[in-house]
Amino acid sequence: MFERSDETLVKQALNGKKSAWITLVKRYEKQLYNYALRMVSHREDAMDLMQDVFVAVFRNLSSFRGDAPFKGWLFKIAHYRCIEFYRRKKPMQSLHDTPEQEDLDDNDSPELTMVSGQQATEVQNALKLLPVNQKMVVEMKFFQHATFEEIAYQLGISTNTAKSRLYSALDKLKNHLELDYV
């Protein structure tokens, strides 16, 4: 069986085919949830953010022109929703909030699980120290495997700005993580 393209699913969803919309949601819900979780560090907030993004996408589906891939358009909306989230939450958030751990694989040894869990926590804590615009570029580059052109499109910035933000963020992460191990 062949997989229908996003653009085909969008057209079908706009014509009232509920299963096409459900297929789009299922195709991107895990990626979108993981993006939101890395950005906001709390499961409940990530779930709320994901649902908010899908509601916004559904309401604005008719404005999708197809100039760029649907995934890019979806994550551009997610980016703006993350910015809104930070604007609403910033006065209430503590810099010392600890990120929640994802469920670990049962096949890992206890030692490996402990070390990888500690390292993941250290990286997540270091990511929290980055400015939001740098954090988003790091997330998109390393977790979504987006190209600099895709990052630039989704964030509405130039390719050079995306590169600059990434390299600046990596430098900050390197310095922060080196302090933990020196």
From TrEMBL:
<dbReference type="Pfam" id="PF04542">
    <property type="entry name" value="Sigma70_r2"/>
</dbReference>
<dbReference type="InterPro" id="IPR036388">
    <property type="entry name" value="WH-like_DNA-bd_sf"/>
</dbReference>
<dbReference type="Pfam" id="PF08281">
    <property type="entry name" value="Sigma70_r4_2"/>
</dbReference>
<protein>
    <submittedName>
        <fullName>RNA polymerase sigma factor</fullName>
    </submittedName>
</protein>
<comment type="similarity">
    <text>Belongs to the sigma-70 factor family. ECF subfamily.</text>
</comment>
<dbReference type="InterPro" id="IPR013249">
    <property type="entry name" value="RNA_pol_sigma70_r4_t2"/>
</dbReference>
<dbReference type="InterPro" id="IPR013324">
    <property type="entry name" value="RNA_pol_sigma_r3/r4-like"/>
</dbReference>
<keyword id="KW-0731">Sigma factor</keyword>
<dbReference type="InterPro" id="IPR014284">
    <property type="entry name" value="RNA_pol_sigma-70_dom"/>
</dbReference>
<keyword id="KW-0805">Transcription regulation</keyword>
<dbReference type="InterPro" id="IPR013325">
    <property type="entry name" value="RNA_pol_sigma_r2"/>
</dbReference>
<feature type="domain" description="RNA polymerase sigma factor 70 region 4 type 2">
    <location>
        <begin position="122"/>
        <end position="173"/>
    </location>
</feature>
<keyword id="KW-0804">Transcription</keyword>
<dbReference type="InterPro" id="IPR007627">
    <property type="entry name" value="RNA_pol_sigma70_r2"/>
</dbReference>
<feature type="domain" description="RNA polymerase sigma-70 region 2">
    <location>
        <begin position="24"/>
        <end position="90"/>
    </location>
</feature>
<dbReference type="InterPro" id="IPR039425">
    <property type="entry name" value="RNA_pol_sigma-70-like"/>
</dbReference>
